[in-house]
Specification:
247 residues, 0% strand, mainly alpha, Growth Hormone, Chain: A, globular, single chain
C-alpha cells in the first residue's frame, strides 16, 4: 500500500507548519479598526469573518473528498498512484513540480519579522489574491470533468460546489475589505494559472497529471486561506476561536 496517498505532501505539511506560526505572532501591525467600522452596514466584521471561515472550511472539506475520490476511483486511481511513485523515485522532480503552484508567486512573508510588518488590510488582500486566482482554474476544472468519459458524478458535483463557494468567498472578502477601507479599488493583477493546455491535453497521462497538480495546489491553498482567515478573525475579535484552533 502506498503511504499517505490522501494526505498533503511533505511540502504541503511544511507550508502549513509555517503558516501556523501566524498564531504565535505578537504585535502584528494592523489597520485601525474602529467600532463604528466593524458594525456599519447590515453585517458586522465578526459575522463576515465567521461566514468566510465557514466557506473556507467547506471548500477544504470538499477538496479533500475530491482528492480521496481521485485516489480511490477506477477512473483515475492508477494514474494518481503512478505519479506518487514517480515522486518517490525522484525527490528533486517532486520538489520542482509541487513548488510550482501558480499562487506561490505571491509575495508572502518568509520570516516572522516580515510577517509582523504586514497590516490587517494587506493580509486580506493576500487572501483575496489567492481566492481570485482560483476562479479560472476551477471553471476549467468543472468544464473538463464534465466532458471526461467516466468521470464520477461525485467528483464533478464537488468540483461545482468548490467553484460556487470560491465565488461566494471572494465576494465575502471584498465586502470585508470595503468595510475596513471604503472606496478601495480592486487589485487587477492576480497570479495567473498556466496549466490549461496540460489540462486539455489529448495525452492521457499529461491530462491526469494536470488534475493531480491542480488538486495538490488547491488543497494547499484552501488550508492556507482557512488559517489566514482564522488568524485575522482572532486579531479582530480575540474570542473563543483563538483557543479552539487546531494545527
Amino acid at each position: 500500500m502506498l503511504p499517505s496517498l490522501t494526505q498533503p505532501s511533505l511540502l504541503g505539511v511544511l507550508l502549513l507548519l509555517s503558516v501556523s506560526n501566524l498564531l504565535q505572532w505578537e504585535n502584528v501591525t494592523c489597520a485601525p479598526i474602529h467600532e463604528n467600522k466593524t458594525e456599519q452596514g447590515d453585517v458586522s466584521l465578526k459575522d463576515l469573518f465567521d461566514h468566510a471561515i465557514t466557506l473556507s472550511q467547506t471548500t477544504s472539506a470538499l477538496t479533500t473528498e475530491m482528492r480521496k475520490l481521485f485516489f480511490s476511483d477506477g477512473f483515475s486511481a492508477n494514474m494518481f498512484k503512478k505519479f506518487v511513485l514517480d515522486f518517490f523515485k525522484d525527490k528533486m522532480y517532486m520538489i520542482k513540480i509541487l513548488n510550482s503552484c501558480h499562487t506561490f508567486s505571491l509575495n508572502t512573508p518568509e520570516t516572522v519579522e516580515e510577517a509582523r510588518d504586514i497590516s490587517f488590510e494587506d493580509f486580506l488582500k493576500m487572501i483575496l489574491s489567492i481566492v481570485h486566482s482560483w476562479n479560472n482554474p476551477l471553471h476549467h476544472l468543472v468544464t473538463e470533468l464534465g466532458g471526461m468519459k467516466g468521470a464520477p458524478d461525485a467528483i464533478l458535483s464537488r468540483a461545482k460546489g468548490v467553484e460556487t463557494i470560491n465565488s461566494e468567498l471572494l465576494e465575502n472578502i471584498m465586502t470585508i475589505l470595503s468595510k475596513i477601507h471604503p472606496g478601495l479599488k480592486e487589485n487587477e493583477t492576480y497570479p495567473v494559472w498556466t496549466d490549461l493546455a496540460s489540462l486539455q491535453a489529448a495525452d492521457e497521462e499529461c491530462h491526469f497529471f494536470a488534475l493531480y497538480k491542480l488538486f495538490y495546489c488547491l488543497r494547499v491553498d484552501t488550508y492556507t486561506i482557512d488559517l489566514y482567515l482564522k488568524y485575522l478573525r482572532c486579531l479582530l475579535v480575540k474570542g473563543d476561536i483563538c483557543s479552539s484552533l487546531e494545527f
